[in-house]
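Moderator note: this is an archived Q&A kept for reference. The question asked for a predicted structure of one protein chain; the sequence and the answer are reproduced below.
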Amino acid sequence: MAVPDSTPRILTKADSAALRRAHLAADSIKAPTAQAELPINADGRWHWRGEALRSAGAVTLADLLMRIPGVTAFRANWIPAPQFIAWNGDARRVRVFFDGIEIDPIDERYGRLLDLGVTPLWQLEEVSAERVAGELRVHLRSWRVDRTTPGTRTDVTSGSENTNFYRGYYGRRLHNGGVIQLAAQQYSTASLRTGGDGSSLQVFGRLGWAGKRWSVDATWNRAGVDRSPTIRFPLSRELAEKNAVPAFKGTLGTAYGRVAWGDPDAKAAPWVQLIASTQSMRDDSDSLPPDTTFVVTGPDSGTMLVDTATFATSRAQYVFAAGASRWGLDGSVTARLRVGHGRTDLSPSARLRYTRSFVTLAAYAESRGSDSTLRVDLSARVAPWRWLAVDGTFGTYTPSAASTGGPAFTASRLELSTAVRGISLTAGGLSRGQALLAAPVVLGSGLVPVLSGETRGVV
């Protein structure tokens, strides 16, 4: 009987090449699915992607943004509690875009402010905060996959306040270009002293197809939240009962279908995207008084009668966006059509940026928007040397009605930045005209919008 040869075989160059070909055949890299336009500040700061985003130590979007100069954070407690941020003192001047869709504050009980505690963060691959004079625009890109070999990841985290996180991802590309992505996050936390504890189950899914230039996908994002009241004065039983942030049990969701051609990040190439989306919120807390009526302000002015058992609202948004780059110029146009609450609102916008040598110029204009404000922003950066840069931005903001949006105002900021032995130093000044500052009313009944006079500050 022959004995098998047990001598190890030495691989030749031909063997290695054959193995590489076999591996590439088994694990092909496909063209990525579409991604939204991502404006980035000329200085490249306040932009996170990949591992830098995951290692930033932020659990919610508010955690990530509160480190930006000019941002003030308001939060009632730990993760499940409402979280808001203000830009230069105005909480209404913060806008969030998820894959090109503007996330609107559709829950009127929050005073037309967006709760960043439930805004998606864990399934993102890139975040960019666009700092202009009068507002902060935050752009989010969701997680994508490009390999045919299934990719999985599981995260388990435990921390203070009896907090436990469980997170899982699954994504793969089919050989015909198909896309399958599923992810989920579940967390729970308990705060016995001040309340505000709760749990949340969040789910993300994507199905689609992508070729060299064309891409089609349907994406679904859902967050279920169950939190208890947050006690403001835990040492006084009487005050604690009267000053608690209300409990919440319900779901928030965003879903969209997209057809795209081209890539906004590609140079010297045009791109086009069509998106149909819906944003919804449902409150199953069963804690509302009978025949509750909310006054709807802003572009959807009127009143809304709320059911005693549940409160549900939704809004559709249709987006057409196109752009191109050439000779140092990057330009794009967007038309955003909102349908909901018995109204149809069209918001066209245009963006232009020029970069040459050490000079960057940018302009942005939008007619109306989610808060019914006409806005124009101009920005410039001059960096003649690596260790010296001058940044300036100026903006005008004109609400459609002063009774709901406050008076028209202008804002400006000028900064000088330098670096000494690896340490960045920035100094400058900012100004803002008279403005109506929104209030996070859900954090306390005593919080109301206030009219702020002209303001100047030093950075």
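Archived answer notes: The first helix runs from residue 13 to 26.
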